[in-house]
Amino acid sequence: MLTDTAELVAQARTSARPLFAFNVITLEHAQAIVAAANRAQRPVILQLSENAASYQGNPEPVLAACRMLASAAEIGVSLHLDHVESEQLLRLAPELGVSSIMVDRSRLPDEQNVALTRQATEWAHNHGLFVEAELGEIGGKGNAHTPGVRTNPADAAEFVAATGVDALAVAVGSTHAMTTRTARLDQALIIELARAVAVPLVLHGSSGIPDDELRAAAGNGIVKINVGTLLNVAFTGAIRAALAEDSGVDPRSYLRAGRAATEQAVHRLLQAVG
Ligand code: G3H
Ligand code: ZN
C-alpha cells in the first residue's frame, strides 16, 4: 500500500530492521523492486533521483506508475525524490505525489549548504514532506565528491539542529556507483553519529557494501539504506547476456530478463539484510 516515508522510517526504527530505498530508472526497475518487496514481505522506498528525473524529461509518468505499483503492493511502499539539487524539482515535489525528498546542497560550501537546506526544509515541511539532507560529501557523484570523506559527529549534530531535517545522510566510507561490493564502513563512526544525532541516519552508495557490513551498519544506527547501482549491474548484465543469445528485435525478450534479474538482486538483498 502507498505509505508515507515518515511512517516507514518510524517503523524501521522501532523494528530495528533497516528500510531499503531503491533507485528507479525505468518502469521495469519499479516493477522488479515492488515484486521483490512483496515476495520478501518488506516495506521499501521507490526513489527517483534528480538525474533519473532529467533522463525522463518529465518525472510525472514514471512516478505515476510507481504510485500505482505502491498502491497495489501488499507491503508499505513510499515514493521519494533523491539528490534534489535544483530549486525547480524541489518546488514540483508536492505535485509529484512523493512523501519525502532528499535536499542535496552538498556541492556547496558548508555555510551555504546549511542556509539553503534550512530554507528548503522549511518549505518542504510546509508542504507535508519528510526531508533528508547531506552534510559532507559521500563520494562518487562527480567533481565535488571525493571518496574518503567522513562526517564529523559534532558537525552532524549542529547541521541537524540548524536545518531541522528529519533524516541525515552520512559519509562513513561508502562511495556512489561502485560495481563491486568491496567497500568497508567505519562502524565506530556510525555508532558515534547515531549517539550524536537524534534523527535517523541514511547510508548512500550502498551498492559497494557487502551484506555483513550492511547488517552491522543497521545494528549500529543506519536506518535507511539507499541502493541503486547494484540493480543496474543485475539489469544491464542480464540484458547484455540476453542480447548475446538472441538476434531478434523484440525488446520484451531482453527487458524481461533484465527485470527478472533486478527482482532477484533486490529480493536477495532484502533477505540477506533483515
Ligand atoms: O542515493 C542513491 C544511492 O546513494 C545509491 O547509490 O548507486 O552507489 O548504490 P549506489
Ligand atoms: Zn545517494
Summarize the structure.
The protein is of the alpha/beta class.
Distance between the termini: 20 Å
Hetero ligands: glyceraldehyde-3-phosphate, zinc ion
Question: What is the general shape?
Answer: globular
Beta-strand residue fraction: 5-15%
Helix and strand content put the structural class at alpha/beta
Number of helices: 11
Counting DSSP E segments of at least 2 residues, the number of strands comes to: 8
Task: Give the low-pLDDT segments.
Answer: 142-146
- What can be said about the biggest beta sheet? 8 strands, parallel, barrel
Mean pLDDT: 95
The helix-strand sequence is HEHEHHEHEHEHEHEHEHH
Radius of gyration (CA) equals: 18 Å
Spatial strand order of the main sheet? 1-2-3-4-5-6-7-8
Task: Describe this protein's structure.
- The structure is a single chain.
- The protein is α/β, with parallel strands linked by helices and 274 residues long.
- The chain contains eleven helices and eight strands.
- The chain has helices at residues 5-15, 27-40, 50-56, 60-72, 87-96, 110-126, 153-163, 187-196, 211-220, 229-245, 251-272; strands spanning 19-23, 44-49, 77-84, 100-103, 130-134, 167-170, 201-203, 222-227.
- An eight-stranded parallel β-barrel has the order 1-2-3-4-5-6-7-8, surrounded by nine helices.
- Strand 3 (77-84), helix 5 (87-96) and strand 4 (100-103) form a beta-alpha-beta unit.
- Helix 2 runs parallel beside helix 11.
- The two termini are 20 Å apart.
